[in-house]
Write a structure and sequence with these properties.
The chain is built from five helices and 33 strands. It has about 450 residues and is mainly beta.
Length: about 450
C-alpha cells in the first residue's frame, strides 16, 4: 500500500509541474517577410485554427487572402498574389490566438512594412496655390498632392500655416491628396506661409528631401458701403434725422451693402439706442444682413440705429399691431336691456340693486385691426365683493369691437343687494391679450363704495 501511495503522489506531482510550466501566455518571438510570405514565430506551439482566425492582413488598405503553412512554432502566410512591389502591408494578430494549452496571446500584435525601397523619391507633386499667388477667397482651401500616399501622422506634425489658421484635413486618392479646409476666414490684405516640413513621410517611410514652402497673400479689402436699410417685406427706412414712424414691435430689418461688408461690420452690423438684443444673419457673400430682435420692441419708443460711422436712422415704434391694450372706462348697467348705464370712477359710490340683467362693460383702446377673443377674456376680468352681504354672480361674458381701435368685454351677472353699502373691486389682470398678442401695460384695478 505504501508503494502504491508513493507512485500516485509522484504521478500527480509530475502532471501538475507540466501544466504549471505551460501556463505562460505565448508571445511573438520573431517576425519578417520574404520569399513570398509573411513569417511569424511564436514562443510556444499554437492552436493553429484559432490563431489563423485571429490573423488579418491588409495590402494598401485592402484585405488580403492567402494560405497558411506551419513549421512547429512558425506560421507562414502566403498571400494569393504574393508579396507585391511598392505596397504597404499591415499585419495584425489579436489576443483570440491561443497556444495548444489554451493560453491566449499575451498582447495583440501589429506589424507594418512596405515594399517600396527607401531610396525612392517622395515629393510634392502639385499644390493648388503657387508661391506668390494672390487669392480673393477668404475661405480658400489648400489642396496638396504627393507622389505617393502620405502618412497622416507625419503630415499632421509637419504641416503648418502662418499666421495660424484652424484647418480641417480631408483625404482622397488613397491618401495621396489632402485638402485643408479653413475653419475661419483669412484676413484681407495679409500674407500667409504654408510649410510642409521634410519630416513628412509617405506610407512606405520615405520623407521629403527638404521643407516645401509656399507664400501667398489675400487681396485688398474691397470698397463697400451701406446702400439701404429696409423693414423686411416693407418700406425702406430713411436716414438723415427723419423719424420713421409706424414701426411694429416685431419689425425685422434688412441691411443691404454695395459689396462684401468688412469684418468690423460683420461682427457688429448695427448699434441701437436704447439697447435692444438682436440676432444678425448674413448671407453667404456678406452683402446682406437680416436683423431680428430677440424681444418685442417697446411701444412708443424712439430707437436710434447707428450703422458704420456715418449712418443714423430713427425708428419710432407705434405701429397699429403693436399698440397695447388700455382700459378706457368701465360702465355699469343695472339692467342692460334699458341701455342706461353709469361710468364707474375710482372711489365713486354705486348702488347695486337686486336683479338678473346687470352688466359690467369694460372698454379698451387697441390697434385698429385688433380684437379680444372670448376665451382670452375669461379669467382676465373680475368683479369681487370685499365684505358685506352683497352678492354678484358672474354668469357669462361677450367680447366685441365698438369701432376700429375700441374693444369691449361685457360681463353679465345677477345681483342680490345687501343691507349696507358694500366695497367692490373691479379688476383686469395682465393675462388679457388681444389678437396681436398685446397685453395691458399694467394691471388695472378700480374700487367703488370704498369705506
Amino acid at each position: 500500500m505504501k508503494k502504491i501511495f508513493l507512485i500516485v503522489i509522484m504521478f500527480v506531482s509530475c502532471s501538475f509541474a507540466e501544466e504549471y510550466t505551460h501556463m505562460k501566455a505565448p508571445e511573438i518571438s520573431d517576425y519578417s517577410y520574404g520569399e513570398g510570405c509573411i513569417q511569424i514565430t511564436f514562443s510556444s506551439e499554437m492552436e493553429r485554427g484559432i490563431t489563423e482566425q485571429a490573423f488579418s492582413c491588409l495590402c494598401n488598405d485592402d484585405v488580403t487572402s492567402g494560405m497558411f503553412v506551419w513549421y512547429e512554432k512558425k506560421m507562414c502566410f502566403y498571400p494569393d498574389e504574393g508579396i507585391k512591389d511598392k505596397s504597404r502591408y499591415e499585419v495584425e494578430i489579436g489576443t483570440r490566438a491561443e497556444d495548444r494549452y489554451g493560453n491566449s496571446l499575451r498582447e495583440a500584435f501589429s506589424y507594418i512594412f512596405s515594399t517600396l525601397k527607401k531610396e525612392e523619391n517622395f515629393f510634392v507633386q502639385k499644390m493648388n496655390i503657387s508661391d506668390g499667388d494672390v487669392v480673393t477667397d477668404l475661405m480658400q482651401p489648400i489642396e496638396i498632392t504627393f507622389s505617393s500616399p502620405v502618412d497622416k501622422a507625419t503630415l499632421y506634425q509637419g504641416f503648418g500655416i502662418s499666421p495660424m489658421v484652424s484647418c480641417a484635413p480631408s483625404f482622397k486618392d488613397n491618401s495621396q491628396t489632402v485638402v485643408f479646409l479653413p475653419l475661419e476666414k483669412l484676413d484681407w490684405n495679409s500674407t500667409y506661409t504654408v510649410t510642409l516640413k521634410k519630416s513628412i513621410a509617405d506610407q512606405y517611410g520615405n520623407t521629403l528631401q527638404s521643407d516645401y514652402v509656399v507664400t501667398f497673400s489675400t487681396t485688398q479689402e474691397p470698397d463697400c458701403s451701406l446702400e439701404k436699410v429696409c423693414i423686411k417685406n416693407g418700406v425702406e427706412v430713411v436716414s438723415g434725422g427723419v423719424v420713421n414712424s409706424g414701426i411694429e414691435k416685431d419689425a425685422v430689418l434688412e441691411l443691404t451693402y454695395s459689396g462684401t461688408a468688412d469684418s468690423k461690420a460683420v461682427r457688429n452690423p448695427v448699434t441701437i439706442s436704447p439697447a435692444q438684443d438682436y440676432v444678425a444673419d448674413w448671407n453667404a457673400g456678406h452683402t446682406q444682413c437680416t436683423i431680428t430682435f430677440k424681444k418685442s420692441l417697446p411701444y412708443k419708443t424712439l430707437l436710434e440705429l447707428s450703422v458704420g460711422n456715418d449712418k443714423r436712422y430713427l425708428l419710432y415704434v407705434d405701429g397699429e399691431r403693436s399698440k397695447p391694450l388700455e382700459v378706457q372706462e368701465i360702465k355699469f348697467y343695472q339692467d342692460y336691456t334699458t341701455g342706461i348705464c353709469e361710468v364707474m370712477e375710482q372711489g365713486s359710490g354705486i348702488v347695486f340693486e337686486t336683479g338678473s340683467q346687470a352688466c359690467f362693460e369694460f372698454v379698451f383702446s387697441a390697434g385698429n385691426n385688433a380684437e379680444i377673443l372670448t376665451a382670452d377674456a375669461y379669467g382676465a376680468v373680475d368683479v369681487a365683493v370685499s365684505r358685506g352681504n352683497l352678492t354678484i354672480d358672474l354668469e357669462h361674458l361677450e367680447t366685441g369691437q365698438k369701432e376700429p381701435g375700441v374693444l369691449f368685454i361685457r360681463v353679465f351677472c345677477s345681483i342680490t343687494a345687501g343691507t349696507i353699502q358694500t366695497p367692490v373691486v373691479i379688476s383686469v389682470n395682465g393675462i388679457l391679450k388681444d389678437s396681436n398678442g398685446n397685453t395691458l401695460e399694467k394691471e388695472y384695478v378700480l374700487r367703488v363704495n370704498a369705506l
